[in-house]
Q: What sequence folds into this?
């Protein structure tokens, strides 16, 4: 029989660290490709961090206006962006964003407003993240709430192969080996006027 202090040892294809918009979309995308996915969050996925207490923005721009939008946003950010990544982001958002309203019953009416930036959309963080948690849970992703990651695991060549942390409410350490690790724990949105956001990925 397990005790509270025995470590939780898991293997997964994709480990997502974080519980906000970037983390939940990453987990859903990996799961839709058939990967075994585990998501760990320092709090409760869908209610921790900045986004649930604020608004969530998406850059949703029709194809004909993307060149103009990229130039405008790049200038606002001090011309530090990689425009190829910006274009990729716009294409992915244009394809995936309608899923929330068209196929998963997301209550889009009344929660959007246009920002001054071309194509930007804002929606209520609590409503958005509640729906994203529901989708992640129903997709088969394993969620470990209140389980902050404390270190990355690396192999002898220095490649990231997982992470380790602790389940705070159970007082139990966890260690997860993974084929890929996605860090979606927040960052710095340079001159964007928004709360800190970023996603970084690493793995084999």
A:
């Amino acid at each position: 029989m397990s005790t509270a202090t025995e470590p939780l040892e898991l293997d997964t294809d994709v480990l997502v660290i974080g519980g906000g918009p970037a983390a939940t979309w990453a987990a859903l995308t990996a799961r839709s490709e058939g990967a075994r996915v585990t998501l760990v969050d320092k709090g409760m996925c869908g209610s921790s961090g900045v986004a649930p207490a604020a608004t969530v923005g998406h850059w949703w721009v029709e194809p004909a206006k993307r060149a103009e939008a990229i130039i405008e946003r790049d200038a606002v950010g001090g011309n530090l962006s990689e425009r190829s990544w910006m274009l990729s982001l716009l294409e992915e958002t244009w394809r995936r964003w309608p899923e929330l309203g068209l196929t998963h019953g997301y209550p889009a009416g009344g929660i959007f407003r246009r920002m001054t930036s071309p194509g930007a959309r804002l929606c209520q963080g609590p409503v958005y993240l509640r729906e994203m948690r529901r989708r992640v849970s129903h997709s088969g992703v394993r969620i470990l709430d209140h389980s902050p990651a404390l270190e990355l695991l690396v192999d002898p060549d220095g490649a990231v192969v997982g992470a380790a942390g602790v389940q705070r409410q159970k007082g139990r350490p966890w260690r997860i080996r993974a084929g890929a690790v996605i860090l979606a724990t927040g960052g710095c949105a340079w001159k964007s006027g928004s709360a800190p956001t970023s996603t970084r990925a690493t793995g084999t």
